[in-house]
Amino acid sequence: MFNNTHIILLSEKKCRQIHIGKPSNNCPELKVHTNKMRKSESEKYLGDIVDKTGSVKATIEDRVAKGYGIISEIQAILNEVPLGKYKLEIGFKLRQTMLISGMLYNSEAWHNVTEEDMRVLQKEDEMLL
How far is residue 91's CA from residue 75's CA, in Å, rounded to a whole number? Predict the structure, then answer.
């Protein structure tokens, strides 16, 4: 027997409808409870940007911007903390744990990544080296 304690409560403020692909009049009108769901062209979801094109380009641009900040953090650590002969080793570990993981988070779910997209990400990585 099903009772009302198992009903999922959705937030009207957080729910959005994004039509991915070619414009179409066949998209159903979605509702959150009794209210019409707001439409959007782009939203951030679990760290990735989902937009109406279905492309990962916006996510990659966002990750590159995030990479600039991470590189600044790593450089500040390396310049301010006296690491002596371990500076290079620590720098590579910071690169792996902060920059690479921060920029490539969830990248296994990305699709249609082009060679140009890879070059953009690689160029960001090379800025630290």
Answer: 8
pLDDT in tens, 30-44: 888 888 888 888 889
Q: Return the structure tokens found at 79.
A: 């310049």
Question: Any idea what the Cα angle at residue 120 is, between residues 115 and 123, rounded to 5°?
Answer: 120
The pLDDT tens digits of the residues spanning 92-120 come to 999 999 999 999 999 999 988 999 999 99
d(C-alpha 123, C-alpha 94), whole Å: 17
Distance CA 31, CA 14 (A): 12
CA-to-CA distance for 45 and 51, rounded, in angstroms?
10
What residues have CB less than 8 Å from 120, skipping those under 6 apart?
A: 60, 64
pTM summary value? 0.77
Distance between CA 9 and CA 96 in Å, rounded?
Answer: 39
User: Which residue type does 96 have?
Assistant: Q
Give the span between the Cα atoms of 101 and 110, in whole angstroms. 15
